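Quick look at the format.
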Amino acid sequence: MERTRKRPEFRKGRPTLTREAIGRAVLELGDAELTMRALAAHLGVTPRALYKYVADRDDAVRLAADQLQSQWLLPELDPARWRDSLRELCLGLLGLYRRHPAALRLAETAALDVHDNTRRSNEAMLAFFAALGLPPRDAHRAWRQTIAVVAGHSEIERWRARASAHREMPEEEGTFDDVVEMLAAWISTLAATST
């Protein structure tokens, strides 16, 4: 990926266009309306100006993914109190998905590079699950399942919010704590049965 020189975010009191600003704008705009024309309008520039910084929509999505991955910091993970650590981890992920609800669908639309921060987080998570007694294959499985459970809960929250705006919704069954507790029970069973 070709890197452009870092430009000042403001010039003469007005925001300038940067690759970082484009990534943030993609996260703000989301996937439903993400066209290069809509992105340019959101940023207050012409599509031609936008193409000076990004090659195409996929390049803009990669910038958004980079922004997202750089924002997420893994909490301190303590295998001795692993359920608390898992809960903190899940709450952090949920908070990230709540701040950037389109992030999951945007990530599906382009081949994404993995940010150094994400690599470090993945390695720390695999080490955390290994410390619980999971072999590498099951540690990977537990980490993928953790992401899937939190992402799924985030999607359900968004669906409920949209649905409740159109009609009265029944009382929500279960809470995020219940979801995390079920995930912890699965991980505990996986660790107990791993060979």
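Next, a different chain entirely:
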Amino acid sequence: MRDTGRSAAERPAGVIAGFGFRTGASVQSFEDALAQAAQGREVTAIATLSDKAATPAFAAFLRATGLPLYCVSQAEAQRMDTVTHSPGSQAARQTGSVAEAVALAAAGRGGRLLGARVISQDRRATCALAVIEASEACAPDKTTPDTTIPDKKTFNAFNQGEIS
């Protein structure tokens, strides 16, 4: 995981790709879901649930993209209103779509989805895009903790190859 060096209030305008995924998702699962969701758009960051970020295939995908990662807590993801309402996602993670929820949470206040999540061909990964509007880069909401920057221990472990 990469520490972006920015607080939630300092996010530049851009597009965040949020990912949800099942055990067994591969780098190809993530690449396929991203290609379907992005449809040629430039993605500026990646987001997923904090407890999934160190999954080996996801970490390999993240390294290959070279993009910064925003980690989102399950509690923060549950607070997001999603377009998709998957019964499986609801049962497992108490949100209609993990991909949509983490993209929105990482985008911060004023972020908006660019569409519903897409599913990789192997059905192991989902991806949704959210846009960060530059005009919405304001002070963080004091009622919502900023959960998008990984802690230094995780950051250092990833960069030292302890998490692959």
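The longest strand covers residues 14-21.

See the schema section for token definitions.
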